[in-house]
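Example A, followed by Example B.
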Amino acid sequence: MQSAAPSAPFAGPFAIGTLSATDQELFPGLVVPEGRVLDLRTALGEPALTTRGLFERWDEELPRLRALAADVTGDAWQPLDGLRVHAPVAPRQVFQSGANYRQHVIDLEVAHRSPDDPRTVEEARAEIAAVMDRRAAEDLPYVFIGLPSAITGPYDDVVLPAWAEQPDWELELAAVISRPAYRVSVAEALEYVAGYTIANDLTDRATVFRRDMKAIGTDWLRSKNAPGFTPLGPWIVPAESIADPGDLRVTLKLNGRTMQDESTEDMLFGIARLVSYASQTARLLPGDLVLTGSPAGNGMHWGRLLRDGDVMDGSITGLGAQRTRCVAEGAS
């Protein structure tokens, strides 16, 4: 589906992307709102530089990026139109947060409740809401691991595997790590975040829970990690350009109809708590992603799952927008 990159606005004077000209190598680009791009391999004098390599010394390079973005004159800047936009970074690790939006969890619990549940829908929602409030106050985030191989570009087609019976959308805010983080506190966690981007964490609802081994619980490998199940980008916007990541609008439209439209304010656990929590067990590395969960309005809520030909438009305040088309496996 990739075509000329749209000119969706982003916050601040610049963002980071990964781009390529036709049949050319990928390059890390400094993108400015005027719709121009600077190849950072040339600008920084490093022919082998990658976007992930940039984040490995983010604190050092950030002042240079600010200076470069302040002057968009000169032949080194090229128009964004005509360039292919890829996923903005190739992470080594992807940390995904589940059950992190209050209304989303309530909707899912109600949708998946047993037919024999004696409670009315209203009673079930009230009880689940009380559990969510206690969890936010007393419990820990729920974080699991995703595969980098599931990541695809923000305008690429998404292939729906033939085995996926209930493919669903889940638009999310993603934090990008700037330096190694291990056992960092909540108070210092945001110091390890370089910026933010958009992720659509697709899920096959039919395979989330193991039917053959119910005691084991969720099967995230099967349900979330098909190739292309995580459209990412288009840009990584520096954290300094986002005034409050806890107050951004997450919006997904399916074929033009708004399905998700919620503020990150509805998150049970904010970005600092998620980053800190993940770092208590794992060492987070530069360029890694921490996905923060998806708000209410997924397909299970609407009773409408993804199918061949669907087009998803996802946007988050200040981060631009992505557009992906669903293609059934084997479809021409």
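Example B, a separate protein, is given below in the same form.
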Amino acid sequence: MAGYSGITAGYLILGDKPCLVETGTSTSAPIVRDALAALGVGPDDLATVVVTHIHLDHAGGVGDIARFFPSAEVVVHEKGARHLADPTRLMASAKMVWGDRLDTLFGELAPTEASRIRALGDTGAIDLGAGRTLSSHYSPGHAKHHVGLIDSATGDLYVGDAAGVYLPETGDLRPATPPPDFDLRTALDSIALFSDLQPQRLLFSHYGPVDDVATTLERSAEELRVWVDLTKQAHTAGMDLDHAVAMVRDRTRERYAALRADPEIAEQFELLSGAPSNVAGILHWLGKENL
């Protein structure tokens, strides 16, 4: 993504009915296709493509992957399904946020035939074959179209962005609270739901597997509270967005080794969980709370 490796994960579940969890961006789709081919999954072999939510770093490649793998069913929460069939509004919104950086960061989400899309409700299941399932659990807070996915055979839980952004180089964990959907209560409820599912591992879309489930989920909730508390202080003090971002960034800096590490790692961390996006999302939520 955006020229970085090790920044956005797609996970292949091999079995009777191979399943790809997350596609990454449109610009990454050829890399994903070639990686699947190297693992023995050809154009007609992939049974399912499922995304945790429709943000472009997770689902931007859906249309391309659907074209590369014409037998695959595309699975998404019902609140995101129409945007995969007709990405016009989603891409217009992304253009407003990212401007000229959109093409470099994400590329263009191509439409997927509506007949190939299966929309999930708040719970659902994807058949992986031989009695194995990938169960979907609605987990908004980060986004209203977000689901977590747990593998019945392994206990692996695909957490999308609902547990934040994990950086394996430094072990940092930072929340992802972008506008317009962030809501603290539902975000904390989603983390509690993940804990109740008793997964064996957490598979972060950004980036990689984590074995220490309980500690990591506790930290996810703590990070959310820290960022919300600091943003509330800035909001109460009447700060505008720029000053609020500067204050929160300064007061959280020591929490993250990445920001004291190699400049490229720090830049990668900011791209995935930028302070401006996080603070803007929390301020948007605070505004709704105060209506």
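On Example B: Residues 254 and 260 are 8 Å apart (CA to CA).
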